Amino acid sequence: MKSAGLRYLKNVSTLQFDETRCIGCGVCADVCPHGVFVIRDSLAQIVERDACIECGGCALNCPAEVLQVKAGVGCASAIIKGWLTGSEPNCDCSNDSGCC
Amino acid sequence: MQDPEDCCQSKTVSPNAGPADRGPAQPCCAQAAEEKPGFACYPFVIGWLDTAAGPVPQVSSGLDSRDRLGRWAMRWGIGRSRYQITPGLYAVGQPDHLSPVLVSANYKLSFDCLRSAIAGLSAWVLVIDTKGVNVWCAAGKGTFGTAEIIFRCHNSHLDKVVRHKRLIVPQLGAPGVAAHKVRQDTGFSVTYGPVRAADIPEFIAGGMQATAAMRRVSFTTRERLILTPVEITGMRKPVLYMAVALLLLGGIGDNIFSINAAWSRAPGAIFAGLAGVLSGAVIMPILLPWLPGRLFSAKGALLGIIMSTVLCLTLYRGMTFPGLVALYLFVSSVSSYTAMNFTGSSTFTSPSGVEKEMRRSIPLQVGALLTAGALWLTTAF
After folding, report:
1. Chain B partners within 8 Å of A27 (Cβ)
2. B64 burial via Cβ count (<10 Å: 0-12, 13-18, 19+)
3. Quick one: which of B199, B173, B79, B180 has its CA closest to A25?
4. Helix, strand, coil shares of chain A as percentages rounded to 5?
5. What pLDDT, in 10s, does the model give residues B53-77?
6. Edge to edge, what strands does the sheet with B189-193 contain?
7. Is B116 helix (H, G, I), strand (E, B) or coil?
8. Contact between A98 and B227 using a beta-carbon 8 Å cutoff
9. Lowest model confidence (mean pLDDT) among A18-27, B133-142, B254-263, B283-292
10. Which among A7, A70, A97 has CB closest to B136?
11. What residues of chain A lie within 8 A of the CB of B341, using their CB?
12. Chain A residues 54-83 with a CB less than 8 Å from chain B
């Protein structure tokens, strides 16, 4: 049942963090499903950048707006469709955790 | 409690649209059917709770055979786009004005998962309209989102039903929900609950505190296995196109095109393609953590090579050299592409990473496929 240690490609995440303006509320650490952030001395720190899946939860919930990430859909077929139609990738799989 | 089977036929009575003069909790449909001609309530509705905002349907926390059949159908991708329930406020147990409010998606599988996970608790469930899509996917698209939560809070008069000001939103809904904006608009503060509904009882008992483990997404062997049927059904169309292409290609030979040649050559090739799909869509997800490398396409290609070896040692003995190379290239590229598609189902890949992988792998997959086709064609002459 090995699974927690699964990692994808390194150095690809578009996550950006302006720590000088962090207010230390901790919501980023709460919402991140991969433990990218920890709160130390009342400030957020990125400790697992390569675990980021660019879901965008941290950036959307940051009240200080000091996090940015190019969030999107990670479906291969959606990205191909995006390339072919020149639009943003959008998954058409209707539901289930199976998709996106 | 009356067996809902007795009275509840088909579907949908909107939970917040019922007549306001309904009495306190009574068996569902006797009342709903009498008072609203043409409406029937969901089989999982076992009564009605009278609240300051009108009657709220009380739902069972047990799943019956219909729910389980529906879940099975969803796992195979049957009728997924229609498996939804009417958004609005529902009750589990006997909630009162102090009970927690849990926000959920209107994908019935998500709702079933939640109501069965909180069996024994009393809570309000605010189902928002995600067009029948699960929480995580809907959050990614923004349909499980700030505006919809705000709308449902107002629409269901939540402030009349409960006296506290807290919504428990699933953590995986965060990519669509700006918690601070929900509070600004509705006065309800958002507390992010655990990733898995199964952890909610412990989360609530622990004073709405999630442990680090509750906050992490997993991808266990069982979770990966559950996804494989839908991976297979998702390949139906590509497999059909592949079969047609192989029939056309297999007919080409000394007689320019012969249907007999197509019938004799194509089935073997189609079977090899199916073996590649099996390798990429089923074997690769199961073995994912133990296959070397990080690229899904590379893991799939490796399994494709193993699959080709198995094929040429068993069913495909005595092939010519070009035919053998064609088999390896074809099965490996199909397996690699199918495995790459599993990135969309995985819980730990990023869009930037997937795009990088695809830019690297697709040219190789296409190259291998074209070479395989050319080599296979030469064996016909």
Report:
1. 179, 192
2. middle
3. B180
4. 25, 10, 60
5. 999 999 999 999 999 999 999 999 9
6. B45-51, B54-59, B88-92, B123-128, B101-105, B166-170, B189-193
7. helix
8. yes
9. B254-263
10. A97
11. 75-77
12. 54-58, 60-61, 63, 70-80
Q: Convert the pLDDT of each residue in B359-378 to its tens digit.
A: 999 999 999 999 999 999 99
Question: Residue A80 above 80 pLDDT?
Answer: yes
Q: How confident is the model at residue B124 (pLDDT cuts 50, 70, 90)?
A: very high
Q: pLDDT band for position B36 (50/70/90)?
A: confident
Q: Which of B179, B216, B358 sits opposite A27 (nearest CB)?
A: B179
CA distances B44 to B30, B65, B90, B156, Å, are 14, 11, 11, 20
Distance of CA B270 to the CA centre of its chain: 29
Cα-Cα-Cα-Cα dihedral sign, residues B169, B174, B175, B179: positive
Tell if the CB–CB gap between A78 and B344 is shorter than 8 Å.
yes
Helix (H, G, I), strand (E, B) or coil at B28: helix
Which chain B residues in 91-110 lie under 8 Å from chain A, judged by CB atoms? 107, 109
Q: b/e map of B317-342 (b: 16 or more CB within 10 Å)?
A: eeeeeebbbbbbbbbbbbbbbbbbbb
Q: At what angle do helices B221-234 and B65-75 cross, to 10 degrees?
A: 70
Please check the confidence at residue A6 and state whether its pLDDT lies above 70: yes
How many other C-beta atoms can be found within 10 angstroms of the C-beta atom of residue B241?
A: 10
Q: How many CB atoms lie within 10 A of CB A25?
A: 17
Q: Quick check: B170 pLDDT over 80?
A: yes
Query: Which residues from A are below 8 Å from B180, CB to CB?
Result: 61, 63
Q: Which residues contact B191 (CB under 8 A, 6 or more apart)?
A: B166, B167, B168, B169, B208
Instruction: Determine the residue among B348, B359, B360, B365 to mutate to test chain A binding: the one whose Cβ has the most chain A Cβ atoms within 10 Å.
Output: B348
Q: H-helix or E-strand containing B331? A: helix B321-341
Q: What region does A4 belong to: left with phi over 0, alpha with psi -120 to 50, or beta? A: alpha
